Amino acid sequence: MAEDDLIELKFRLFDGSDIGPDKYDPSTTVASLKEVILARWPQDKEITPRTVDDVKLINGGKILENSQTLSESRVPIGELPGGVITMHVVVRPPQLDNNNEKQLGDAQKQNCCSCTIL
Prior knowledge:
Order of helices and strands: EEHEEEH
Radius of gyration: 20 Å
Low-confidence stretches: none
Number of helices: 2
Shape: elongated
């Protein structure tokens, strides 16, 4: 594949930091991009995704599906000649197990207040 056919992408994390930019083939799937993000995720972040399903990629206001390729997801290839396309990364918060849900529910009960209007 010619160097000109590659798409240059960077991934903007929730805190404004970036992963990349790097060049990718238009036939690269969104799931493959998510695997790259997981492998290159900064170790100093409090929120860390565990699986590909914990990560959502957004481009042009649309959430990209794992099975789509870059060319299928309508990444604007020709709009920015020589430019870098920024995709936003959203991480799904960790799921609470039953024990954590109970602790969270107890904490909410203890921290309640009431107002009386006279």
